[in-house]
Amino acid sequence: MALSVRYERDGLVLPRAIGGDAAVDLVNTFAGWDRPSAASAREYLQSYDHLVLWSASAGLVTDAGVDALRRAGRRDPAAADKTLDRAKQLRSAVHDLLSPEGRAAATALGTVQELAGEAIAAASLRWGPPVTLEFAEGVRRPLDAVAWRCLLFLGTADASRVRACPGQDCGWLFIDRAGRRRWCRMEWCGNRSKARAHARRRQVRG
After folding, report:
1. 3-class SS of residue 193
2. Domain tally for the chain?
3. 3-state SS, residue 119
4. Which of 92, 94, 183, 205 lies 20 to 30 Å from 149, alpha-carbon distance?
């Protein structure tokens, strides 16, 4: 049985991690970058709770801290909504920087720099050894963690190996280290593309 493009956690629908890094998978919390205004486009970060659970699945916050973060979001819904909006701004900026069709604009870099800077300013260093970065507790923690991860990823060689899936209503990004990968997953977009092409050929012959 083929793996579904999405799964449920605590009753919330989240996207599968296929990008190769949490920074790339943040971009993939939206599907339909090729046609973002289309009715078929899908938004996975529909609430602050979605952001928290996605962050835990991506290893950016601990599973043990999920309930506390969700309670914090319910206590301060305005802060939770602002954090979610800022996470989406970060997502768009990273998409613009990584997508082959994106715009590596100063505004996109500025968004990443601003959010990562806020994260590090509020964080503390802990000596293990080695040194670890401990992000501030509170509603912003998922945003701080993913902003810092995005900044780190953009400084790696893998940032130049990111490709965009050409599947209709997809546009998900992934790291193509071997230089041979075309689809986010063959069973999701590749097979659908082949089926559409086959149907078009039959119509032409008919």
Report:
1. helix
2. 1
3. helix
4. 183
